[in-house]
Design brief:
heterodimer; A: 267 residues; mainly beta; seven-stranded mixed sheet; five-stranded antiparallel sheet; 46% strand; B: 271 residues; alpha+beta; three-stranded antiparallel sheet; 7 helices
Chain lengths: 267, 271
């Protein structure tokens, strides 16, 4: 099981060519996706509760079909269906609040790096200009609410993390992106990390050569005993041989927004 | 013909007609221009109100000008209108009350166009807030007109003002059930339902030791737009989880105790 982390994983994203009346089949985590090209339509079918839940494969073209209870089908019409289809991952469309599995504390004066993962969305685009057809979460995360009251705040997604401290021990799931979170607690008391609000719409997605998906690192500094820390987007992930495959959804200056988004970090 | 309508009067009629046509066109243009400006800068109900005020004001001016072109003295008409207003005022108390209530309603702003409210037993989406009444569209697609006076007097519940809502599920479990296990099962159901918010956390409140069941309230939060979906999916998932865990949701029952009564002692009388 541990050896699995070290093996290069097959990238399931990229550009694919589909001939007339051909089909491609992907399984990414619990989602199974099928694209069927006909002369004037592209049928996009998917199942979100497929087993096994951590699979990663694709076959394009294939003779396999996708059927099962709960299958969703969307048909897209064209004058002439393009041959090129793009299947690629994207980060969540709202901020993701990451809850450590067990109470997590950063002792006074310590600087640590922890790794947490967030759920991915899948996008289907066609043609040279990459026209977007559909986008859906690979596995729908739960909703959660971050804010000072039930009247003011922000609707986010929730996910749980084992908050691993060593890169080598981080499991690589095909349907989740990893973020390196660097925390520096310069305060004189311990920092109880109850939750981390990751504003993933401001982050880009990178593919590493080993098939892992990463975001930029996020740096959090707690400079004094203040209840709110300073947070900023760090560098793209290491090793440096990564390729940016999906740009950030929101590209405006995130400074103020991130501070707001992370203000609920310390409780 | 000459006796009834002189050439000058005929010109007057033509001018009055032209004034009316131009007035209607101007009212339409102004309404759409004001609408475009207000749609971007003001709330929906003020945009609607602004459009209407501008439209009817221009229309009234055009009508007055047309009357003047016909040679009618507006001063006499307005004087007569004053007398009529007093008479009509008594008859139109309700309308006046609605009008004033409408102004209060607009300044207070308990809801805006597009929100869902519950008032006097009717629940629906607000279509418009006018000077005399509020128009609602109920979920079974009925058009309901609620007078502003009623709106001011009645208790209004705005169902979509806040971004999140809590659903309180009332349920009863059999006395034989382990409450601790029931609590765990309910929390698992909430955790596995993606529409149920993780925070604010779901809570389970003990309500009563009732006749046939231990009554609990299972309170779960959801985004307001997902409220109905959560309500339906949660009920189904709770039922499935209880069936799987053999937790009984009892229906009202009575325990009947039967016993054999001693045979009646034969009487001494008779044959």
């Amino acid at each position: 099981m541990d050896d699995d982390h070290k093996k290069p994983a097959l990238p399931w994203w990229g550009r694919f060519e589909l001939g007339s009346d051909e089909r491609g089949l992907w399984q990414v985590g619990p989602m199974r996706l099928s694209l069927t090209r006909r002369r004037q339509e592209l049928s996009v079918d998917y199942l979100q509760n497929a087993e096994p839940r951590d699979a990663r494969f694709f076959e394009c073209p294939t003779t396999a079909t996708l059927e099962g209870p709960g299958m969703v089908r969307n048909r897209y019409a064209f004058a002439e269906t393009p041959e090129t289809v793009w299947v690629r991952p994207a980060l969540a469309d709202r901020a993701v609040v990451v809850y450590p599995e067990y109470p997590f504390h950063v002792t006074a004066g310590e600087s640590i790096t922890l790794f947490c993962s967030t759920p991915l969305w899948i996008r289907v685009e066609v043609g040279a200009s990459r026209v977007g057809l559909m986008e859906t979460p690979i596995e729908r995360p739960s909703d959660t609410w971050i804010g000072p009251s039930t009247r003011e705040g922000e609707l986010c997604y929730a996910t749980q993390t084992a908050a691993r401290l060593e890169r080598a021990s981080v499991p690589r799931h095909p349907h989740r992106a990893l973020t390196e979170l660097r925390i520096r607690n310069a305060a004189s008391d311990a920092l109880h990390l109850e939750r981390v609000n990751l504003a993933v719409p401001y982050l880009s997605l990178y593919a590493a050569r080993d098939g892992g998906l990463w975001t930029e690192s996020v740096v959090l500094e707690r400079t004094s005993s203040a209840t709110i820390g300073r947070l900023q987007i760090g560098q793209p992930p290491e090793p440096s041989d990564v390729e940016r495959i999906t740009p950030a959804r929101v590209t405006s200056d995130p400074g103020g927004i991130l501070v707001r988004a992370f203000s609920a970090l310390f409780d | 013909m000459e006796n009834y309508l002189t050439t000058e009067q005929l010109y007057g009629v033509v001018r009055a007609g032209a004034t009316l046509i131009l007035g209607v066109a101007a009212a339409h243009l102004l309404r759409s221009a004001i609408g475009k400006v207000l749609d971007q800068r003001a709330s929906v109900q003020f945009a609607i109100l602004g459009r209407r005020v501008a439209y009817y004001l221009v229309l009234a001016l055009a009508f007055a000008s047309a009357l003047r072109e016909l040679g009618l003295n507006l001063g006499v008409l307005l004087g007569a209108a004053g007398v009529v207003t007093v008479a009509v005022g008594f008859a139109a108390q309700t309308s006046a009350s609605n009008l004033i209530s409408g102004l209060f309603l607009m300044s207070e702003g308990p809801f805006v166009v597009g929100e869902v409210i519950e008032v006097a037993g009717t629940t629906g989406e607000v279509l418009s807030i006018d000077l005399l009444s509020v128009k609602l569209r109920t979920f079974d697609n009925l058009y309901v007109r609620v007078p502003n006076e009623t709106m001011v007097k009645a208790q209004i519940t705005n169902l979509t003002r806040h971004p999140i809502r809590r659903y309180d599920m009332q349920l009863g479990v059999a006395y034989g059930s382990k409450i601790g296990r029931v609590r765990e099962v309910l929390m698992e159901v909430a955790e596995n339902n993606p529409l149920a918010l993780r925070e604010p956390r779901p809570i389970i409140i003990f309500m009563a030791f009732a006749d046939s069941s231990v009554n609990l309230q299972f309170s779960v939060w959801a985004a307001t737009e997902n409220y109905l979906d959560l309500r339906n999916s949660l009920a189904e998932e709770v039922k499935q989880a209880f069936d799987r865990e053999s937790i009984e949701i009892p229906f009202p029952h009575r325990v009947l105790v039967t016993r054999t009564l001693p045979a009646p002692t034969p009487g001494k009388g008779g044959e």
